[in-house]
Amino acid sequence: APTRCLMFDSWFDEYRGAVCLVQVVDGTIGVDDSVRAAHSGKRYTVSEVGLCTPRRFPVDRLLPGSVGYVIAGMKTTREAVVGDTLMAVAAYDAGIPPLPGFEVAKPMVFASVYPVDTGDFDELNRAVEKLVLNDASVTVQRESGASLGSGLRCGFLGLLHMEVFLQRLQDEFYTSVVTTAPTVPYTVRLRKPRNPSKKEAEAMAAAEAAGQDPLILRCENPSEFPPAVEVEAYYE
């Protein structure tokens, strides 16, 4: 059977990149094998496989049913998406489907993080970048506020996820931050303009061509909300 491995966890090694924990469902996987990640389609060459005992114990190949680790030159854990399938290149190119059940993790809680001292933003940014290497489900976007200065808009899977991330930021990097109240994304349905301008008409046509509803807007930040007179309905 062609090689298919389920990735269920990963961590970042400073010298080797992302270390993926996998379950070998079909086939085998070993050093110098060429594989692809089914979700991204990126190609990798396996440099090491092994078992966790709990230390890493390299072996020649992982056999069907084995649970072990794979190092394949992934630079960050964002490439090692939990639930994705590592497949033999030949199987991927032949159109063999990946393992079922994969869904991309979507952040559902958002909060802004600012340094206590506005001059410490670069230090905060470096600390968050290092944490994200081991937690690819966190999304980060730079933003600037009138009162708090430069900060980072972070997306988390939930409130507990946010609390753990912020606690690690303090415990591991000794970074004191100011955190805004968490918010959840809202979907807004806009009223259809009676006499749309040329620019509005072009934007609506482009959205429809892309298979999207031009009147649906997703808002993750209060500053993104349109004027109330333009809104037909709000959905949480």
UniProtKB/TrEMBL annotation:
<keyword id="KW-0342">GTP-binding</keyword>
<dbReference type="GO" id="GO:0005739">
    <property type="term" value="C:mitochondrion"/>
</dbReference>
<feature type="domain" description="Translation elongation factor EFTu-like">
    <location>
        <begin position="17"/>
        <end position="86"/>
    </location>
</feature>
<keyword id="KW-0547">Nucleotide-binding</keyword>
<keyword id="KW-1003">Cell membrane</keyword>
<feature type="domain" description="Elongation Factor G">
    <location>
        <begin position="104"/>
        <end position="179"/>
    </location>
</feature>
<dbReference type="InterPro" id="IPR006297">
    <property type="entry name" value="EF-4"/>
</dbReference>
<dbReference type="InterPro" id="IPR004161">
    <property type="entry name" value="EFTu-like_2"/>
</dbReference>
<dbReference type="GO" id="GO:0005525">
    <property type="term" value="F:GTP binding"/>
</dbReference>
<keyword id="KW-0472">Membrane</keyword>
<dbReference type="GO" id="GO:0045727">
    <property type="term" value="P:positive regulation of translation"/>
</dbReference>
<dbReference type="Pfam" id="PF03144">
    <property type="entry name" value="GTP_EFTU_D2"/>
</dbReference>
<dbReference type="InterPro" id="IPR035647">
    <property type="entry name" value="EFG_III/V"/>
</dbReference>
<dbReference type="GO" id="GO:0097177">
    <property type="term" value="F:mitochondrial ribosome binding"/>
</dbReference>
<dbReference type="Pfam" id="PF14492">
    <property type="entry name" value="EFG_III"/>
</dbReference>
<dbReference type="InterPro" id="IPR009000">
    <property type="entry name" value="Transl_B-barrel_sf"/>
</dbReference>
<dbReference type="GO" id="GO:0016787">
    <property type="term" value="F:hydrolase activity"/>
</dbReference>
<protein>
    <submittedName>
        <fullName>Uncharacterized protein</fullName>
    </submittedName>
</protein>
<dbReference type="InterPro" id="IPR041095">
    <property type="entry name" value="EFG_II"/>
</dbReference>
<keyword id="KW-0378">Hydrolase</keyword>
<comment type="similarity">
    <text>Belongs to the TRAFAC class translation factor GTPase superfamily. Classic translation factor GTPase family. LepA subfamily.</text>
</comment>
